[in-house]
Amino acid sequence: MSDLPHCPKCNSEYTYEDGGMVICSECAHEWSKDAVAEGGDDVRIIKDANGNLLQDGDSVTVIKDLKVKGTSLVVKVGTKVKNIRLVDGDHDIDCKIDGIGPMKLKSEFVKKA
Asked: Tens-digit pLDDT profile for the chain (113 aa)?
């Protein structure tokens, strides 16, 4: 009997291990063994540019000039962003920047303040 967990997407019992990943043979969903050890795929691990773990409500500092798409505005290096919220997707930080307004940032362009 396999001690591997059921698939978090389709709840299939037919999962298998491949290297550091666990794969569902029915829906092809993949997740890491670390996520299994931490209690499932529900755990979001988002890190800043330095590898520090980010959480909702943290303050971060922008480490690179970022052009705001569709405008001539730029978020300058050193801009401090307070009270971030982590979301799923490519841009994984949802925040409000003074003078610009609400926007989404990638965690690779910020460091924990």
From this structure: 468 888 888 888 888 888 878 888 888 888 877 665 555 445 578 899 998 999 999 999 999 999 999 999 999 999 999 999 999 888 999 999 999 999 999 999 999 98
Full-prediction pTM beyond 0.85? no
**For the purposes of burial, counting CB atoms within 10 Å of the CB of 16, is it exposed (0-12), middle (13-18) or buried (19 or more)?**
exposed
- Is residue 97 within 8 Å of residue 81, measured between CB atoms? yes
* CA–CA dist 85, 26 (Å, integer): 33
Q: What's the CATH architecture for 46-112?
A: Roll (2.30)
Q: Which residue ranges make up each domain of the chain?
A: 1-39, 46-112
